[in-house]
């Protein structure tokens, strides 16, 4: 067992035990983390391969507390999936349907606006909007959807459309991606969610989501979104056919783009749910795999402000533990999640604000209600205000 003394500058949190590990390969990595040096591709592979998850978690927690102290973020949000009709037929997905087949739906605009208003009485600060790649719906449908929401809910932040959807809208509307993003912004889109990134490596992408834009196109679209002034998130889908090198490659490519634009807010590892997908022979991810993605993500993505353990994906229990393994955010109330529930998720489809507060408090962290841009939200009985 080797022990490294913890640097003394941490003031806001109680003294911790020193770094200890049974895995000598972690020692040079620990030295780099303590010196705030960037980790290499090889370091990432070592972190994934280490059996000493507590030591990996210790390091990730160090970085997490350096950035956020004891605070853990959550928000009050609502998901809206306007259509599940999708031309892509990705093997990873149980949500998409071909047009006019059983279970396919597309919301009329009024229906989408009503959906936005329904759910819990707590005032939401964010609408999270993603859907399938519909072969016939014009870009104007999505722009009207967003502008109608802005008219009805002017205080609510609209986080809408993944890079895959943006690239698809642009192609269908015969616009450049930059023009498409400008129209989205003008309609009221405030930022973009991180979906569709999956795993960038071509070998994997060809198998799990062959009809989507490739990894470079996802990154190019994100670059344009950031240049247009839209913040965005980045996901990584793990627990299918990818290997450790594919995961590290994904993280390193995200990190390189973030060096360039600074436009990413949050990294969200997403656990693959196999039920009802073409990959339903694969096993579900385990708790330790989930926790490791959070920890390695925190350590490799030194330029990402936030790492989210999305409770819907990994379960509230794992999300809670993740708050000690590198995560600083557990996402929100969500309300009516569909994508993972079609793929067999057994978590509730939403949680109340007070449940999120309890999860965080019981992890020994300080709950901090944020808006989508991580500004403090203050609530009175009927309304909320955002610190700007
Ligand atoms: O891109 C699809 C994933 C993503 C499955 O930005 C699946 O704050 C697991 O991106 N098993 C959409 N995952 C969701 C998403 C997201 C979620 C929460 C917060 C944010 C954010 C973004 O869901 C897709 C895909 O990677 N997905 N099918 C499945 N069977």
Termini gap:
48 Å
- SS elements, strand count: 14
CATH topological fold name: TIM Barrel
- Helix % is 25-40%
Rg for CA atoms: 20 Å
The ordered H/E elements are: EEHHHEEHEHEHHEHHEHEHEHHEHEEE
- The CATH level-2 architecture is identified as Alpha-Beta Barrel
Strand order across the biggest sheet? 7-8-9-10
Q: How many helical stretches?
A: 14
Domain Radical SAM core: 72-305
Binding site for [4Fe-4S] cluster: 86, 90, 93
Pathway: Quinol/quinone metabolism; menaquinone biosynthesis
Protein name: Aminodeoxyfutalosine synthase
List the helices and strands and how they pair.
Elements: E1 2-4, E2 19-21, H1 27-34, H2 41-49, H3 53-68, E3 71-75, E4 77-80, H4 109-117, E5 126-129, H5 139-152, E6 157-160, H6 163-173, H7 177-187, E7 191-192, H8 202-208, H9 215-227, E8 231-238, H10 244-261, E9 264-271, H11 287-300, E10 306-307, H12 311-314, H13 316-322, E11 329-332, H14 353-362, E12 366-369, E13 377-379, E14 384-386
Parallel strand pairs: 3-11, 3-12, 4-5, 5-6, 7-8, 8-9, 9-10
Antiparallel strand pairs: 1-2, 13-14
Helix pairs in contact: 2-10, 3-11, 4-5, 5-7, 6-7, 6-9, 9-10, 11-13
Bound molecules: ligand V47.
In short, what is this structure?
The chain has 14 helices and 14 strands.
Characteristic terms for this protein:
single chain; 388 residues; alpha/beta; TIM Barrel; four-stranded parallel sheet; three-stranded parallel sheet; 39% helix; globular; disordered N terminus; binds ligand V47
């Amino acid at each position: 067992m080797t022990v490294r003394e913890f640097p003394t500058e941490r003031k806001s949190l109680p003294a911790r035990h020193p770094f200890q590990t049974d895995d000598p390969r972690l020692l040079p990595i620990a030295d780099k983390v303590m010196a705030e040096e960037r980790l290499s591709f090889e370091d990432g592979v070592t972190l994934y391969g280490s059996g000493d998850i507590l030591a990996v978690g210790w390091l990730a927690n160090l970085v997490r507390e350096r950035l956020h102290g004891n605070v853990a973020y959550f928000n009050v949000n609502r998901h809206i999936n306007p259509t599940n009709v999708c031309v892509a037929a990705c093997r990873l997905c149980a949500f998409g349907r071909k047009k006019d087949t059983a279970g396919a739906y597309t919301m009329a605009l009024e229906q989408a606006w009503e959906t936005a208003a329904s759910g819990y009485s707590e005032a939401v600060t964010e609408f999270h909007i993603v859907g399938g790649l519909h072969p016939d719906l014009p870009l104007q449908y999505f722009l009207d959807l967003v502008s109608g929401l802005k008219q009805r809910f002017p205080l609510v932040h609209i986080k809408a459309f993944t890079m895959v959807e943006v690239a698809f809208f642009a192609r269908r509307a015969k616009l450049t991606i930059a023009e498409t993003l400008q129209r989205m912004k003008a309609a009221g889109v405030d930022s973009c969610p991180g979906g569709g990134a999956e795993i960038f490596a071509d070998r994997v992408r060809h198998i799990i989501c062959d009809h989507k834009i490739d990894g470079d196109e996802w990154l190019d679209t994100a670059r344009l979104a950031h240049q247009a002034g839209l913040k965005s998130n980045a996901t990584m889908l793990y627990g299918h056919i990818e290997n450790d090198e594919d995961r590290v490659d994904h993280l390193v490519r995200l990190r390189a783009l973030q060096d360039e634009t600074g436009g990413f807010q949050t990294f969200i590892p997403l656990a693959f749910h196999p039920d009802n997908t073409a990959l339903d022979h694969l096993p579900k991810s385990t708790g330790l795999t989930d926790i490791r993605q959070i920890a390695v993500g925190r350590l490799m993505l030194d330029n990402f402000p936030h790492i989210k353990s999305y409770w819907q994906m990994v379960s509230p229990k794992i999300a809670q533990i993740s708050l000690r393994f590198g995560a600083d955010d557990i996402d929100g109330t969500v309300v009516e999640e569909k994508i993972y529930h079609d793929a067999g998720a057994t978590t509730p489809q939403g949680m109340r604000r007070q449940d999120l507060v309890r999860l965080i408090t019981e992890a020994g962290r300080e709950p901090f209600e944020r808006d989508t841009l991580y500004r403090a939200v203050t609530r009175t009985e009927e309304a909320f205000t955002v610190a700007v």
